[in-house]
Amino acid sequence: KEKSPPKKKKPPCKPSTLKSGDLFDATAAGMLLMVCFSERAEADTAQMKELEGILTEARNLESFLKEKKKHLKQTLALISDKLLG
Question: Is the pTM above the cut of 0.70?
Fold first, then answer.
């Protein structure tokens, strides 16, 4: 019968060098960072909604101006026909 090699013993775990105050500071900093990210996301969402509103308004204005241009062309064509006719 072969014997398995002896198992190596792991050195005992070192106790954490973090003090409870350091852990609290890290947790507080993490929470502050999360709050900042959340506020930034809210601001980004509000800005996106505002930009979407501006884009919708610009598209409506473009449509209105195209319609006015079409009507003006028709009016000018009518005037031209009357002058030539």
Answer: no
